[in-house]
Specification:
The structure holds two protein chains of two kinds.
Chain A: H1 2-14, H2 16-29, H3 39-59, H4 64-88, H5 96-99, H6 108-134, H7 146-170, H8 174-188, H9 203-208, H10 212-224, H11 230-254, H12 258-261
Helix pairs in contact in A: 2-6, 3-4, 3-6, 4-6, 4-7, 4-8, 4-10, 6-7, 7-10, 7-11, 10-11
Chain B: E1 2-15, H1 22-30, E2 38-52, E3 56-60, H2 67-74, E4 82-88, E5 91-93, H3 107-117, H4 122-136, H5 151-162, E6 169-173, H6 181-197, E7 200-204, H7 208-214, E8 217-222, E9 225-230, H8 232-242
Parallel strand pairs in B: 3-7, 3-8, 5-6, 6-7
Antiparallel strand pairs in B: 1-2, 1-4, 8-9
Helix pairs in contact in B: 3-4, 4-5
The chains are: A mainly alpha, B alpha/beta.
Chain lengths: ~260, ~240
């Protein structure tokens, strides 16, 4: 297992130029020949969040500015997680032609999706930063915690992405299951509301939901202006380590079968 | 440079209905159905041979004899189900026309994309870029997305790019060359040049005359099994006698 793992990292390192090509392919290609180009990556989620902020702050009778910061801070990690999980499903299927023609380390396909989304997310975070300041919000030094939050979130989501990318090749239904599951999970994750607001019969769902600590990792520094509690950080770290361990293990066992099942 | 193949088998699983859905998988977990939904198929069946420096190997056989599967196993696209392959030297397949191309990318961007896929660094690609463009005669259109290319332009670019790299071990699956007569002539010369420079060449072709002229050794596969391995004339005569 140790040598398999070592070979895995060496191969990814050797494939770094393909990896960077795949990442830029994803970032550049979508908006080629559009007037605003890459800006759409930022406008799209920000518009969506703005609409949601207006609607739900009215519904919850909350102050728009405060609620907007609260919501944005939860949406950024959620969008990253949910896009990565659903897009990973297509990482091998969309590259079938290539995979059957030449040997490439398989992991670079899901990895390229994760890196492209991380760049997307990082930039929309910066845009959020500007918005918070322009509507008169305050930012504290706690914001410096955000890069750590990204690292933990990245590996948590990547582990799940690795599993999804392989599983979808075997069971094509999964892409549809995932899109429904993500919609459901959005409402079962405290993004629109505070974690303690969902009580009663479904309370245990919040307790079991592994995404919850990651939302907190982003929301505490941005909304409450403090560093998240050690408890939350440990919980998130545990989930990302677990996710990567399971994800990598599964991936390394199955990767050779992918080409036969495409 | 050398290749050792020992008792190589490549197994495919053929599903009789469709790819198994999640539902089927779940229901099969509970009732172990007696009649399996798939059968195994050995595309390459217990094949052993060695290839050494200077060998120009042609692989012949019917459609579905396992020729392409064998080549793909050599390039580690398919991993062996049984047996082993040891390759010493840098091996590179000649990609099928446009396999690594992205239609939205310009010709130049595709050179970099494809070069990266073939395992070349940015610097190495930069060094061959001008030559590839010149050979493909695409100076004017190199910064246009390839989806606007004519079929001929597309083929010329793909061919020039695929043949610009010089691997130690060259793997060819049915040589091709598109374009007009003038380009075909130029392409053939380049192909021969590439073969001459390679240390080992392995090709699959149904063109017996081509195989006879380019190879110094033939391997005949039938239903995944090695039938004959020897000098081209001898193997080809036996092959043609039977068919």
């Amino acid at each position: 297992m140790k040598t398999v793992l070592a070979r895995f990292f060496v191969e990814i390192y050797d494939g770094r130029s393909v990896l960077s090509q795949l990442v830029s392919q994803q970032l550049i290609l979508r908006y080629r020949r559009t007037a605003l180009g890459y800006l759409w990556s930022l406008i799209n989620p920000l518009m969506m969040m703005t609409v949601m902020a207006v609607v739900f702050s009215t519904l919850f009778k909350a102050d728009l500015k405060t609620f907007a910061v609260f919501l944005f801070a939860g949406m950024i990690p959620w969008n990253f997680f949910s896009s990565l999980t659903s897009q990973s499903c297509f990482s091998f299927i969309n590259n079938e032609g290539l995979i059957k023609q030449i040997y490439l380390p398989k992991a670079i396909f899901p990895l390229s999706i994760a890196i492209a989304l991380l760049i997307d997310s990082g930039l929309s975070f910066l845009a959020l930063f500007v918005i918070i300041l322009s509507i008169g919000g305050s930012l504290s030094w706690a914001v410096l915690f955000i890069p750590i939050a990204y690292v933990l979130l990245f590996f948590f989501a990547l582990g799940i992405g690795l599993i999804m990318s392989v599983l979808t090749v075997f069971f094509r239904d999964l892409q549809y299951v995932i899109s429904i599951a993500m919609q459901g999970m959005f409402f079962l994750t405290p993004i629109l509301y505070k974690p303690e607001s969902l009580t009663g019969k479904v309370e245990w769902l919040i307790k079991l939901n592994p995404v919850v600590p990651f939302i907190e990792l982003f929301r505490t520094p941005l909304f409450l202006n403090t560093v998240p509690s050690l408890d939350i950080i440990l919980q998130a770290t545990m989930y990302s380590v677990l996710s990567m361990a399971i994800g990598l293990n599964f991936f390394l066992r199955q990767e050779k079968k992918i080409v036969f099942r495409l | 440079m050398s290749i050792y193949i020992e008792n190589l088998s490549v197994k495919f699983r053929i599903y009789h209905d469709s790819s198994p859905s999640l539902k089927d998988y779940a229901s099969n977990l509970f009732k172990r159905s007696k009649q399996s939904r798939y059968s195994d198929f050995l595309a390459v069946n217990d094949v052993s041979f060695d290839i050494n420096s200077g060998d120009r190997v042609g692989i012949i056989g019917h459609n579905g004899a396992g020729k392409s599967t064998l080549l793909k196993a050599l390039c580690s696209i398919y991993s062996p189900s049984e047996g082993k392959i040891i390759v010493n030297g840098r091996i590179a397949p000649l990609l099928e026309i446009g396999a690594g191309f992205h239609p939205e990318f310009t010709g130049r961007e595709n050179i970099y994309l494809n070069g990266a896929i073939l395992g070349f660094s940015k610097g190495e690609i930069g060094a061959i870029e001008a030559e590839v463009i010149a050979f493909a005669e695409l100076e004017e259109f190199i910064d246009t997305p390839v989806k606007y290319y004519s079929t001929g332009m597309y083929m010329r670019l793909a061919f020039s790019l695929a043949t610009a790299m010089e691997p130690d071990i060259l793997v060819l699956d049915e040589i091709f060359a598109g374009g007009d007569a003038a380009f075909m002539k130029k392409a053939r010369a380049r192909m021969h040049d590439l073969i001459d420079k390679s240390n080992i060449m392995i090709m699959v072709s149904h063109d017996h005359e081509l195989v006879r002229s380019l190879c110094n050794r033939l391997i005949w596969l039938d239903h995944g099994k090695l039938v004959a391995d020897g000098p081209p004339d001898k193997v080809l005569n036996r092959y043609l006698d039977i068919n």
